[in-house]
Specification:
Elements: H1 2-14, E1 16-20, H2 32-47, E2 52-55, H3 66-72, H4 77-87, E3 91-99, E4 104-113, E5 119-128, H5 131-145, E6 156-159, E7 178-181, E8 191-193, E9 199-206, E10 209-213, E11 218-221, H6 248-260, H7 265-271, E12 277-278, H8 282-291, H9 297-304, E13 312-318, E14 323-328, E15 333-337, E16 341-344, E17 347-351
Parallel strand pairs: 1-2, 1-3
Antiparallel strand pairs: 3-4, 4-5, 6-7, 8-9, 9-10, 10-17, 11-16, 12-17, 13-14, 14-15
Helix pairs in contact: 2-5
């Protein structure tokens, strides 16, 4: 009996404790019940993982001004360590939710080590706002934060012995004999090889539909013609209107090419990889930039293959006759003269 009790005590003490703080909402447009579900589901997912204990009994108002924390999302090294001492936690999980569109939220979460006050891991997830969507989204987020395989997106890697054929690659690297095969299980960060030989990094996958971004880029004009042209097939928008619509950029690209032809430098460069590649819409590009923010898994993947996103990039969304929308690597959206030289990345939609 004594031995069993000792084993139980050792088992409990070996668990890593993670304190989950209140879900932040810097803009203030995410309903409280949604934020509460995010927090509770992250707690549940961590607590159900062997070796970890999640709990949310940390009262921020006892440690620092809760309003200041909610507004900035920043805590000092001293405050992180103090949180660990008061809560007894080994790590602190800070999550931020932002309204992506009418039916989806974008959640960013990071785990802070209370001893070093350093960020151990940061992950992002786009999820619906139903109870089931939030549950699955938070489970996926929690597993990735803990460095565990994501049960919702698994991959298989097959080593081939046959020398690969020369391929047309939208990146800069040839297949080195290791081929990633997608069997309805592509995940964000995968380098996906398409049937035509081009490659891209997956940045969106949902219900068998995905988007991948090229590994190379160019600095080009949106419109290189002498005169300003209004693209009749495009709806003019502004920087505050960039909803995510899957595949919208392809329709936009086709409209641009039908009017500008060879003068559409950015659109033409994207389609030079193949008919399935296109200039992303502002919504698709914004989603890419938010997903690839510094410290994220996608950011690290793109950086590791020499394809890091830096600066401003053209979208296929038109603002007016003279300007189009571009998006920065930080997720800012603004208008720019179509005659300006701006970075361009191609994306490709695919289904599994």
């Amino acid at each position: 009996m004594l031995v069993l009790m000792l084993m139980l005590v050792l088992s409990v003490s070996a668990q890593k404790k993670i304190a989950i703080l209140e879900t932040m909402d810097k803009v203030g447009n995410v309903p409280y019940p949604i934020k509460l579900m995010v927090r509770n589901n992250l707690n549940k997912a961590i607590s159900n993982t062997p070796g970890y204990e999640g709990y949310d009994r940390v009262d921020m108002s006892q440690i620092m001004s809760e309003q200041e924390f909610q507004r900035t999302g920043l805590v000092s090294e001293e405050q992180i360590k103090q949180l660990g001492e008061i809560s007894g936690a080994d790590y602190i999980l800070v999550a931020e939710a932002a309204l992506f569109d009418e039916s989806n939220i974008f959640v960013t979460a990071k785990i802070l080590n209370v001893e070093t006050a350093r960020n151990e891991q940061t992950e992002n997830s786009l999820m619906g706002m139903t109870a089931q969507d939030i549950q699955h989204g938070c489970e996926s987020l929690a597993y990735r934060l803990l460095g565990l395989p994501d049960p919702f997106t698994q991959e298989k890697t097959v080593v081939t012995t046959k020398k690969p054929e020369k391929t047309k690659v939208a990146g800069v690297k040839k297949n080195d004999g290791v081929t990633t095969i997608s069997e309805n299980n592509s995940k964000v960060g995968d380098i996906k090889t398409f049937p035509d030989g081009t490659q891209g990094v997956v940045f969106y996958i949902e219900n068998g539909r995905g988007l991948a971004v090229s590994l190379t880029e160019r600095e080009l004009k949106w419109d290189a013609s002498r005169h300003a042209e209004d693209i009749g097939g495009l709806q003019n928008t502004d920087e505050n209107d960039h909803p995510f619509t899957y595949g919208q950029g392809k329709t936009n690209t086709q409209a641009i090419l039908s009017v500008l032809g060879t003068e559409a430098e950015a659109a033409n460069w994207c389609t030079s990889f193949g008919d399935d590649w296109y200039l992303p819409s502002s919504g698709e590009l914004y989603y890419l930039m938010v997903t690839a923010k510094k410290g994220s898994m996608l950011f690290n993947k793109l950086s590791s293959v020499g394809a890091k996103l830096e600066g401003w990039y053209w979208s296929s969304t038109e603002h007016n006759k003279k300007e189009a929308m571009n998006v920065s690597d930080g997720g800012s959206v603004f208008t720019e003269s179509k005659k300006s030289n701006v970075n361009v990345r191609a994306i490709r939609a695919f289904t599994e």
